[in-house]
Amino acid sequence: MCRSIQPLHNYEPPTTPDEVNAAALQYVRKISGMTRPARVNQAAFDSAVASVAAATEALLASLVATSPPHDRAAERERARARWEPRQATA
After folding, report:
1. I need a surface site. Which of 11, 57, 80, 89 has the fewest CB within 10 A?
2. What residues contact residue 84 under an 8 Å CB cut-off, 6+ apart?
3. Model confidence band, residue 7 (pLDDT cutoffs 50, 70, 90)
4. Torsions phi, psi of 10, nearest 5?
């Protein structure tokens, strides 16, 4: 799947609508195979993004967390720590 789509459940601070929309946009881009749709496909593309965002919001609202919320800053630092060695060898 697309690497830029991040987990959105059980984070502190809570996931924002902008984060949900960004994930929905990346998902629709991935499955459609286009980053910028042609003008004739723009309405269908935008509708798909809105539908995926709505489904994502509904999913996140219905999930029950059984662990304490994750810290976004700590998760970012862990990701950077994993990324840096890969960049050194690339």
Report:
1. 89
2. none
3. confident
4. 65, 55
49-72 burial: b if 16+ Cβ within 10 Å, else e = beebbeebbeeeeeeeeeeeeeee
Residue closest to 5 by CA, chosen among 56, 54, 47: 56
Residue 10 neighbours by CB distance under 10 Å: 16
This prediction has a pTM of 0.77
Helix (H) or strand (E) holding 12: strand 11-12
pLDDT in tens, 18-62: 999 999 999 999 999 999 999 999 999 999 999 999 999 999 999
- Tell me, what amino acid is at 52? V
For every residue of 17-31, DSSP letters joined together read HHHHHHHHHHHHHHH
Query: How far apart are alpha carbons 6 and 48 in whole angstroms?
Result: 19
